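User: Predict the complex with magnesium ion.
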Amino acid sequence: MNEIIVLEKVRKEYHVGEETVNALRGLDLVIKKGSFIAIMGPSGSGKSTLLHLAGILDVPTTGTVSLEGKDIKEYSSKEQAQLRRHKIGFIFQRYNLMPQLTVLENVLLPMVKPDPEKAKAILDKLGLSDKYDRFQGQLSGGEQQRVVIARALANDPAIILADEPTGELDTENTRIIMNILRELNQKEGITIVVVTHNPIAAEYAEKVIKMQDGVIIGENSQN
Ligand SMILES: Nc1ncnc2c1ncn2[C@@H]1O[C@H](COP(=O)(O)OP(=O)(O)OP(=O)(O)O)[C@@H](O)[C@H]1O
Ligand SMILES: [Mg+2]
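Assistant: Here is the predicted structure with magnesium ion placed in the model:
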């Protein structure tokens, strides 16, 4: 099967008091296995909402989200949790590192069977071999973000969903992070979806999807 995530006629409403927010207004999107997609668009256009639905962190108000050919509503909540844990690696700014744990402990934390050798191998691959015992407060922004990527890789995900992974980084570190994601895509075949405001980061994707007002208004293939 060529498609890993498919969204069909997806609407997402949020209710805040009397107000209804239409975050997604009938969105269709096919994410192919092994692809590398960037999603861009103005603040409030629904990018994070889309990523949450793709990661089974939330359900659509109407329409369907399918993962590997099956509507996510057909998975039990236990199966959904398993998918989140084993299939998907999240790089979200709000999932910060645990400040009281070391770098190595942060990567071990999500592992189903904690495996220090594997955690070290992942950290080594990301250029963090001399940082195992540091705490978050003892790392640069770029290093912290690489640890977040290492943690996302802990359970060998098929998909990485990243919400502004370079949001707080300078251009050099943005390129380092995007190169890592490109390698994970090209060498390990991990499907990658990155939300970004940064055109430099978006250059690394093979396709850029533009969102506005809760729908996709265009897409560009590149590279
Ligand atoms: N939990 C929520 N409750 C109510 N409204 C929400 C919630 N989450 C998002 N929204 C609203 O839904 C719309 C889409 O939000 P979303 O976070 O998906 O935008 P975004 O494209 O990621 O924006 P940004 O670039 O600022 O991160 C916005 O109008 C936002 O205010
Ligand atoms: Mg957002």
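Strands lie at 3-16, 19-32, 36-40, 62-67, 70-71, 88-92, 159-163, 191-195, 207-212, 215-221.
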